Amino acid sequence: MGLSKTKTKKNPIIFIIFCFSTIVGLSAAAQQPKTKSFPFIGFKENTDTSFFKFTNFSSIDGGALQLTPDNENQPLGYFNKSGRIMYYKPYKLWRSETDQDIASFNTTFVMNVYRNKTWNPGEGFAFLIAPGFDVPDQSHGQWLGLTNATTDGNPENRLVAVEFDTEKQEFDPDDNHIGLNINSVRSNTTVSLNQFGFLISPVESRDYRVWIQYNGKSKVMEVYMANKSDERPKKPYLKSTINLKDHVKQESYFGFAASTGNPGIQFNCVLEWDLQVEVFSVKKDRKWLKIGVGVGVLVTVLLVLFGVKFGVGYVRKRRRDLDEESNVLGTLKRLPGMPREFRYKDLKKATNDFHESMVLGRGGFGVVYKGVLRDWEGSSTSSATTTNEVAVKKFSRDDIKGKDDFLAELTIIHRLRHKHLVRLVGNFPNLLF
Fold it and tell me: Does the keyword field hold Signal (predicted)?
Protein backbone atom coordinates (compact mmCIF):
# COMPACT_ATOMS: atom_id res chain seq x y z
CA MET A 1 0.00 0.00 0.00
CA GLY A 2 3.03 2.25 0.41
CA LEU A 3 1.96 3.12 3.99
CA SER A 4 4.71 3.37 6.59
CA LYS A 5 4.39 1.66 9.95
CA THR A 6 4.09 5.08 11.61
CA LYS A 7 1.17 6.06 9.43
CA THR A 8 -0.49 2.72 9.96
CA LYS A 9 -0.33 3.09 13.74
CA LYS A 10 -1.58 6.67 13.69
CA ASN A 11 -4.37 5.97 11.25
CA PRO A 12 -5.51 2.35 11.74
CA ILE A 13 -9.11 3.10 10.84
CA ILE A 14 -8.20 4.76 7.54
CA PHE A 15 -5.95 1.83 6.66
CA ILE A 16 -8.69 -0.76 7.27
CA ILE A 17 -11.36 1.14 5.33
CA PHE A 18 -8.98 1.46 2.36
CA CYS A 19 -8.33 -2.29 2.21
CA PHE A 20 -12.00 -3.13 2.59
CA SER A 21 -12.95 -0.78 -0.25
CA THR A 22 -10.28 -2.35 -2.45
CA ILE A 23 -11.65 -5.86 -1.86
CA VAL A 24 -15.19 -4.78 -2.74
CA GLY A 25 -13.94 -3.04 -5.88
CA LEU A 26 -12.02 -6.10 -7.05
CA SER A 27 -15.00 -8.33 -6.40
CA ALA A 28 -17.24 -6.10 -8.51
CA ALA A 29 -14.66 -5.97 -11.29
CA ALA A 30 -14.44 -9.77 -11.32
CA GLN A 31 -18.06 -9.97 -12.43
CA GLN A 32 -17.33 -8.35 -15.79
CA PRO A 33 -16.37 -10.88 -18.50
CA LYS A 34 -13.28 -10.26 -20.58
CA THR A 35 -12.67 -11.34 -24.16
CA LYS A 36 -9.83 -13.66 -25.07
CA SER A 37 -8.84 -13.91 -28.70
CA PHE A 38 -6.08 -15.10 -30.97
CA PRO A 39 -5.53 -14.37 -34.66
CA PHE A 40 -3.75 -16.80 -36.98
CA ILE A 41 -3.05 -15.23 -40.37
CA GLY A 42 -1.57 -18.32 -41.95
CA PHE A 43 0.00 -21.22 -40.08
CA LYS A 44 3.66 -22.13 -39.69
CA GLU A 45 4.87 -25.68 -39.10
CA ASN A 46 7.87 -24.66 -37.01
CA THR A 47 6.07 -22.26 -34.63
CA ASP A 48 2.32 -22.91 -34.57
CA THR A 49 2.10 -26.67 -34.03
CA SER A 50 2.33 -26.21 -30.26
CA PHE A 51 -1.00 -24.33 -30.29
CA PHE A 52 -2.99 -27.23 -31.71
CA LYS A 53 -3.78 -30.89 -31.18
CA PHE A 54 -3.72 -33.06 -34.30
CA THR A 55 -5.14 -36.49 -35.08
CA ASN A 56 -3.41 -39.08 -37.27
CA PHE A 57 -4.19 -37.60 -40.68
CA SER A 58 -4.20 -33.88 -39.82
CA SER A 59 -1.26 -31.48 -40.01
CA ILE A 60 0.03 -28.00 -40.83
CA ASP A 61 1.20 -27.93 -44.42
CA GLY A 62 1.52 -25.24 -47.07
CA GLY A 63 0.62 -22.50 -44.56
CA ALA A 64 -2.74 -24.08 -43.72
CA LEU A 65 -4.42 -26.44 -41.27
CA GLN A 66 -4.88 -29.64 -43.26
CA LEU A 67 -7.66 -31.73 -41.72
CA THR A 68 -7.40 -34.67 -44.14
CA PRO A 69 -4.45 -35.90 -46.22
CA ASP A 70 -3.23 -33.39 -48.79
CA ASN A 71 -0.78 -35.61 -50.68
CA GLU A 72 -0.50 -39.15 -51.99
CA ASN A 73 2.32 -39.98 -49.56
CA GLN A 74 -0.18 -40.25 -46.72
CA PRO A 75 -0.88 -43.89 -45.74
CA LEU A 76 -3.66 -45.35 -47.92
CA GLY A 77 -3.93 -42.12 -49.89
CA TYR A 78 -6.88 -39.75 -49.70
CA PHE A 79 -9.81 -42.14 -49.31
CA ASN A 80 -11.91 -42.75 -46.18
CA LYS A 81 -10.00 -40.43 -43.92
CA SER A 82 -11.13 -38.24 -41.03
CA GLY A 83 -9.28 -35.72 -38.90
CA ARG A 84 -9.53 -33.03 -36.28
CA ILE A 85 -7.40 -30.03 -35.37
CA MET A 86 -8.32 -28.42 -32.03
CA TYR A 87 -6.91 -25.41 -30.22
CA TYR A 88 -4.86 -26.81 -27.33
CA LYS A 89 -6.59 -24.91 -24.49
CA PRO A 90 -10.23 -25.28 -23.39
CA TYR A 91 -12.60 -22.36 -22.79
CA LYS A 92 -15.04 -22.02 -19.91
CA LEU A 93 -18.45 -21.48 -21.50
CA TRP A 94 -20.51 -20.66 -18.41
CA ARG A 95 -19.87 -19.75 -14.78
CA SER A 96 -21.37 -22.66 -12.83
CA GLU A 97 -23.81 -25.54 -13.11
CA THR A 98 -26.69 -23.40 -11.80
CA ASP A 99 -25.67 -20.09 -13.36
CA GLN A 100 -27.29 -18.91 -16.56
CA ASP A 101 -24.36 -16.73 -17.66
CA ILE A 102 -23.28 -18.29 -20.96
CA ALA A 103 -20.15 -17.07 -22.76
CA SER A 104 -20.59 -15.39 -26.11
CA PHE A 105 -18.06 -16.02 -28.86
CA ASN A 106 -17.20 -14.78 -32.35
CA THR A 107 -15.03 -16.64 -34.79
CA THR A 108 -13.98 -16.02 -38.36
CA PHE A 109 -11.90 -18.29 -40.56
CA VAL A 110 -10.90 -18.68 -44.19
CA MET A 111 -11.62 -22.13 -45.60
CA ASN A 112 -10.56 -23.76 -48.84
CA VAL A 113 -12.03 -27.06 -50.03
CA TYR A 114 -9.97 -28.13 -53.01
CA ARG A 115 -10.52 -31.06 -55.39
CA ASN A 116 -9.02 -32.27 -58.62
CA LYS A 117 -11.27 -31.93 -61.65
CA THR A 118 -11.53 -35.71 -61.83
CA TRP A 119 -12.58 -36.14 -58.19
CA ASN A 120 -16.08 -36.43 -56.85
CA PRO A 121 -16.47 -33.90 -53.98
CA GLY A 122 -16.75 -35.33 -50.46
CA GLU A 123 -17.42 -35.55 -47.72
CA GLY A 124 -17.49 -32.41 -45.60
CA PHE A 125 -15.93 -29.91 -43.24
CA ALA A 126 -17.08 -28.57 -39.82
CA PHE A 127 -16.33 -25.94 -37.20
CA LEU A 128 -16.47 -27.83 -33.88
CA ILE A 129 -16.98 -27.36 -30.13
CA ALA A 130 -16.02 -30.62 -28.42
CA PRO A 131 -14.99 -32.04 -25.02
CA GLY A 132 -11.63 -33.30 -26.28
CA PHE A 133 -9.21 -33.86 -29.15
CA ASP A 134 -9.80 -37.45 -30.25
CA VAL A 135 -11.61 -38.28 -33.45
CA PRO A 136 -13.92 -41.33 -33.19
CA ASP A 137 -12.94 -44.55 -34.97
CA GLN A 138 -14.57 -45.11 -38.33
CA SER A 139 -15.70 -41.47 -38.51
CA HIS A 140 -14.79 -41.07 -42.21
CA GLY A 141 -17.33 -40.56 -44.97
CA GLN A 142 -20.71 -39.22 -43.92
CA TRP A 143 -19.64 -38.94 -40.26
CA LEU A 144 -17.42 -35.89 -40.98
CA GLY A 145 -14.92 -36.71 -38.22
CA LEU A 146 -17.65 -35.95 -35.66
CA THR A 147 -19.32 -39.28 -34.81
CA ASN A 148 -19.63 -42.81 -36.19
CA ALA A 149 -22.39 -45.35 -36.73
CA THR A 150 -22.35 -46.31 -33.03
CA THR A 151 -22.07 -42.91 -31.34
CA ASP A 152 -24.14 -40.71 -33.66
CA GLY A 153 -26.95 -38.99 -31.77
CA ASN A 154 -25.60 -39.90 -28.32
CA PRO A 155 -26.00 -36.94 -25.89
CA GLU A 156 -22.75 -38.04 -24.25
CA ASN A 157 -20.88 -36.83 -27.34
CA ARG A 158 -21.24 -33.30 -25.89
CA LEU A 159 -20.45 -31.60 -29.18
CA VAL A 160 -21.91 -28.85 -31.36
CA ALA A 161 -20.75 -28.25 -34.93
CA VAL A 162 -21.46 -26.08 -37.95
CA GLU A 163 -21.03 -28.33 -40.99
CA PHE A 164 -20.24 -27.43 -44.59
CA ASP A 165 -21.44 -30.58 -46.34
CA THR A 166 -20.37 -31.56 -49.84
CA GLU A 167 -21.98 -35.02 -50.12
CA LYS A 168 -25.71 -35.66 -49.96
CA GLN A 169 -27.02 -38.34 -47.60
CA GLU A 170 -30.63 -39.47 -47.31
CA PHE A 171 -31.14 -37.02 -44.45
CA ASP A 172 -29.53 -34.03 -46.23
CA PRO A 173 -31.30 -31.38 -48.35
CA ASP A 174 -28.50 -31.44 -50.95
CA ASP A 175 -24.72 -31.75 -51.40
CA ASN A 176 -23.96 -28.06 -50.85
CA HIS A 177 -25.37 -26.82 -47.54
CA ILE A 178 -24.63 -25.45 -44.07
CA GLY A 179 -26.04 -27.27 -41.05
CA LEU A 180 -26.10 -26.86 -37.27
CA ASN A 181 -25.30 -30.23 -35.69
CA ILE A 182 -25.80 -31.31 -32.07
CA ASN A 183 -24.19 -34.65 -31.14
CA SER A 184 -25.01 -35.96 -34.61
CA VAL A 185 -24.38 -35.50 -38.34
CA ARG A 186 -28.13 -35.16 -38.78
CA SER A 187 -28.42 -31.38 -38.68
CA ASN A 188 -31.02 -29.66 -36.52
CA THR A 189 -31.10 -26.74 -38.98
CA THR A 190 -29.89 -26.67 -42.59
CA VAL A 191 -29.59 -24.02 -45.29
CA SER A 192 -28.69 -24.72 -48.92
CA LEU A 193 -25.97 -22.46 -50.33
CA ASN A 194 -27.22 -22.81 -53.88
CA GLN A 195 -29.62 -19.89 -53.36
CA PHE A 196 -26.66 -17.63 -52.43
CA GLY A 197 -24.49 -18.65 -55.37
CA PHE A 198 -21.81 -20.45 -53.34
CA LEU A 199 -20.35 -23.89 -54.06
CA ILE A 200 -18.34 -25.26 -51.14
CA SER A 201 -16.22 -27.57 -53.30
CA PRO A 202 -15.98 -26.00 -56.76
CA VAL A 203 -13.86 -27.33 -59.60
CA GLU A 204 -11.82 -24.13 -59.47
CA SER A 205 -10.69 -23.79 -55.86
CA ARG A 206 -11.94 -20.70 -54.00
CA ASP A 207 -11.26 -19.18 -50.57
CA TYR A 208 -14.33 -18.41 -48.47
CA ARG A 209 -14.52 -16.42 -45.28
CA VAL A 210 -16.94 -17.65 -42.63
CA TRP A 211 -18.27 -15.77 -39.59
CA ILE A 212 -19.91 -17.67 -36.74
CA GLN A 213 -21.35 -15.63 -33.87
CA TYR A 214 -22.97 -16.89 -30.69
CA ASN A 215 -24.80 -14.61 -28.24
CA GLY A 216 -24.70 -16.09 -24.76
CA LYS A 217 -27.63 -13.97 -23.57
CA SER A 218 -30.08 -14.55 -26.43
CA LYS A 219 -28.69 -18.09 -27.11
CA VAL A 220 -28.69 -17.36 -30.86
CA MET A 221 -26.14 -18.81 -33.30
CA GLU A 222 -25.58 -17.01 -36.61
CA VAL A 223 -23.48 -18.12 -39.59
CA TYR A 224 -22.35 -15.83 -42.42
CA MET A 225 -20.31 -16.64 -45.52
CA ALA A 226 -18.65 -14.61 -48.31
CA ASN A 227 -15.72 -14.62 -50.69
CA LYS A 228 -12.50 -14.00 -48.78
CA SER A 229 -12.11 -10.39 -49.92
CA ASP A 230 -15.78 -9.45 -49.46
CA GLU A 231 -17.45 -7.91 -46.44
CA ARG A 232 -19.71 -9.89 -44.17
CA PRO A 233 -23.30 -10.10 -45.44
CA LYS A 234 -25.86 -8.02 -43.57
CA LYS A 235 -28.02 -11.03 -42.81
CA PRO A 236 -26.85 -14.48 -41.63
CA TYR A 237 -27.30 -17.46 -43.92
CA LEU A 238 -28.12 -19.69 -40.96
CA LYS A 239 -29.69 -18.58 -37.70
CA SER A 240 -30.76 -20.87 -34.89
CA THR A 241 -31.43 -20.76 -31.14
CA ILE A 242 -29.30 -23.10 -29.03
CA ASN A 243 -28.34 -23.14 -25.35
CA LEU A 244 -24.76 -24.39 -25.35
CA LYS A 245 -25.03 -25.22 -21.66
CA ASP A 246 -27.50 -28.00 -22.52
CA HIS A 247 -25.21 -29.70 -25.01
CA VAL A 248 -21.48 -29.13 -24.39
CA LYS A 249 -19.23 -29.38 -21.38
CA GLN A 250 -18.55 -26.33 -19.27
CA GLU A 251 -14.92 -26.42 -20.40
CA SER A 252 -14.77 -27.27 -24.10
CA TYR A 253 -12.33 -27.02 -27.01
CA PHE A 254 -12.74 -25.18 -30.31
CA GLY A 255 -11.45 -26.46 -33.63
CA PHE A 256 -12.28 -28.16 -36.91
CA ALA A 257 -13.15 -31.63 -38.22
CA ALA A 258 -13.46 -33.08 -41.72
CA SER A 259 -13.61 -36.34 -43.63
CA THR A 260 -13.25 -37.95 -47.04
CA GLY A 261 -15.07 -40.95 -48.41
CA ASN A 262 -14.90 -43.23 -51.38
CA PRO A 263 -15.10 -42.15 -54.15
CA GLY A 264 -15.71 -38.60 -52.81
CA ILE A 265 -12.41 -36.93 -51.82
CA GLN A 266 -11.15 -33.36 -51.32
CA PHE A 267 -8.60 -31.29 -49.38
CA ASN A 268 -10.15 -29.65 -46.31
CA CYS A 269 -8.05 -26.62 -45.36
CA VAL A 270 -8.19 -23.64 -42.98
CA LEU A 271 -6.00 -20.71 -44.11
CA GLU A 272 -6.78 -18.17 -41.36
CA TRP A 273 -8.53 -18.31 -38.00
CA ASP A 274 -9.52 -15.80 -35.35
CA LEU A 275 -11.53 -16.66 -32.23
CA GLN A 276 -12.89 -14.36 -29.51
CA VAL A 277 -14.49 -15.88 -26.42
CA GLU A 278 -15.76 -14.21 -23.26
CA VAL A 279 -13.59 -15.32 -20.36
CA PHE A 280 -15.31 -15.24 -16.97
CA SER A 281 -13.22 -14.59 -13.87
CA VAL A 282 -13.83 -16.80 -10.87
CA LYS A 283 -17.08 -15.68 -9.25
CA LYS A 284 -16.77 -15.39 -5.49
CA ASP A 285 -19.25 -17.14 -3.23
CA ARG A 286 -21.73 -14.37 -2.34
CA LYS A 287 -22.46 -16.02 1.02
CA TRP A 288 -18.87 -15.68 2.16
CA LEU A 289 -18.67 -12.20 0.68
CA LYS A 290 -21.66 -11.14 2.80
CA ILE A 291 -20.08 -12.71 5.89
CA GLY A 292 -16.84 -10.90 5.10
CA VAL A 293 -18.67 -7.60 4.72
CA GLY A 294 -20.46 -8.11 8.05
CA VAL A 295 -17.25 -9.03 9.86
CA GLY A 296 -15.40 -6.13 8.24
CA VAL A 297 -18.05 -3.62 9.29
CA LEU A 298 -18.16 -5.03 12.84
CA VAL A 299 -14.38 -4.91 13.18
CA THR A 300 -14.31 -1.38 11.79
CA VAL A 301 -16.99 -0.22 14.27
CA LEU A 302 -15.17 -1.85 17.18
CA LEU A 303 -11.89 -0.25 16.13
CA VAL A 304 -13.59 3.13 15.87
CA LEU A 305 -15.13 2.75 19.34
CA PHE A 306 -11.86 1.48 20.79
CA GLY A 307 -9.95 4.28 19.11
CA VAL A 308 -12.34 6.92 20.44
CA LYS A 309 -12.28 5.46 23.95
CA PHE A 310 -8.52 5.04 23.93
CA GLY A 311 -8.02 8.51 22.47
CA VAL A 312 -10.28 10.18 25.03
CA GLY A 313 -8.64 8.25 27.87
CA TYR A 314 -5.18 9.10 26.64
CA VAL A 315 -6.03 12.80 26.29
CA ARG A 316 -7.49 12.89 29.81
CA LYS A 317 -4.48 11.10 31.32
CA ARG A 318 -2.07 13.32 29.46
CA ARG A 319 -3.94 16.40 30.64
CA ARG A 320 -3.80 15.17 34.26
CA ASP A 321 -0.07 14.52 33.92
CA LEU A 322 0.53 17.96 32.46
CA ASP A 323 -1.53 19.52 35.24
CA GLU A 324 0.47 17.63 37.85
CA GLU A 325 3.77 18.60 36.23
CA SER A 326 2.60 22.18 35.94
CA ASN A 327 1.84 22.17 39.67
CA VAL A 328 5.31 20.80 40.45
CA LEU A 329 7.07 23.30 38.20
CA GLY A 330 4.90 26.12 39.53
CA THR A 331 5.94 25.22 43.06
CA LEU A 332 9.61 25.20 42.01
CA LYS A 333 9.35 28.62 40.45
CA ARG A 334 7.71 30.00 43.59
CA LEU A 335 10.66 28.84 45.73
CA PRO A 336 12.58 31.98 46.77
CA GLY A 337 16.08 32.29 45.37
CA MET A 338 15.65 29.75 42.53
CA PRO A 339 18.58 30.83 40.30
CA ARG A 340 17.58 29.80 36.82
CA GLU A 341 16.24 27.26 34.31
CA PHE A 342 18.79 25.29 32.28
CA ARG A 343 18.58 24.26 28.64
CA TYR A 344 18.06 20.58 28.04
CA LYS A 345 20.91 20.33 25.53
CA ASP A 346 23.35 21.71 28.15
CA LEU A 347 22.27 19.09 30.69
CA LYS A 348 22.40 16.34 28.08
CA LYS A 349 25.94 17.31 27.22
CA ALA A 350 26.91 17.66 30.88
CA THR A 351 25.76 14.11 31.70
CA ASN A 352 27.06 12.51 28.49
CA ASP A 353 23.49 12.01 27.27
CA PHE A 354 22.46 10.69 30.72
CA HIS A 355 24.83 7.76 30.31
CA GLU A 356 24.74 4.93 32.84
CA SER A 357 28.38 5.62 33.71
CA MET A 358 27.32 9.01 35.08
CA VAL A 359 24.72 7.63 37.50
CA LEU A 360 25.43 8.58 41.12
CA GLY A 361 22.41 6.91 42.65
CA ARG A 362 18.70 6.11 42.43
CA GLY A 363 16.06 7.43 44.79
CA GLY A 364 12.36 7.21 45.26
CA PHE A 365 11.75 10.11 42.90
CA GLY A 366 14.21 9.37 40.10
CA VAL A 367 17.87 8.90 39.11
CA VAL A 368 20.75 11.21 40.06
CA TYR A 369 23.50 11.76 37.46
CA LYS A 370 26.92 13.38 37.78
CA GLY A 371 27.30 16.29 35.38
CA VAL A 372 29.96 18.77 34.29
CA LEU A 373 28.68 22.19 33.19
CA ARG A 374 31.00 24.36 31.12
CA ASP A 375 30.83 28.16 30.89
CA TRP A 376 27.93 28.35 33.32
CA GLU A 377 26.93 31.93 33.93
CA GLY A 378 25.92 31.19 37.50
CA SER A 379 29.33 29.84 38.41
CA SER A 380 31.39 31.60 41.10
CA THR A 381 34.62 30.80 39.24
CA SER A 382 36.10 33.74 37.38
CA SER A 383 38.25 31.90 34.84
CA ALA A 384 37.52 32.37 31.16
CA THR A 385 36.52 28.78 30.73
CA THR A 386 34.76 27.36 33.74
CA THR A 387 33.70 23.82 34.58
CA ASN A 388 31.39 22.96 37.42
CA GLU A 389 30.45 19.54 38.69
CA VAL A 390 26.77 19.23 39.46
CA ALA A 391 24.31 16.51 40.43
CA VAL A 392 21.35 16.22 38.06
CA LYS A 393 18.25 14.56 39.46
CA LYS A 394 15.89 13.31 36.74
CA PHE A 395 12.38 13.25 38.12
CA SER A 396 10.40 10.12 37.19
CA ARG A 397 6.89 10.85 35.91
CA ASP A 398 5.81 7.41 37.11
CA ASP A 399 6.29 8.69 40.69
CA ILE A 400 4.14 11.81 40.21
CA LYS A 401 1.83 10.56 43.00
CA GLY A 402 4.62 11.23 45.51
CA LYS A 403 4.98 14.88 44.54
CA ASP A 404 4.13 16.16 48.01
CA ASP A 405 6.99 14.20 49.60
CA PHE A 406 9.27 15.22 46.78
CA LEU A 407 8.44 18.91 47.09
CA ALA A 408 8.91 18.74 50.82
CA GLU A 409 12.37 17.26 50.30
CA LEU A 410 13.17 19.85 47.64
CA THR A 411 12.05 22.75 49.84
CA ILE A 412 14.28 21.58 52.70
CA ILE A 413 17.30 21.19 50.40
CA HIS A 414 16.71 24.62 48.93
CA ARG A 415 16.64 26.31 52.35
CA LEU A 416 19.55 24.46 53.94
CA ARG A 417 23.10 25.67 53.56
CA HIS A 418 25.79 23.25 54.72
CA LYS A 419 29.22 22.31 53.46
CA HIS A 420 28.22 18.62 53.20
CA LEU A 421 24.97 19.33 51.33
CA VAL A 422 24.71 20.13 47.63
CA ARG A 423 23.05 23.41 46.81
CA LEU A 424 19.97 23.62 44.54
CA VAL A 425 21.01 25.73 41.57
CA GLY A 426 18.25 25.39 38.93
CA ASN A 427 15.80 23.28 36.97
CA PHE A 428 14.55 22.24 33.52
CA PRO A 429 10.98 21.02 32.86
CA ASN A 430 10.90 17.31 33.77
CA LEU A 431 14.49 17.51 35.04
CA LEU A 432 15.34 18.78 38.52
CA PHE A 433 18.78 19.71 39.95
Answer: yes
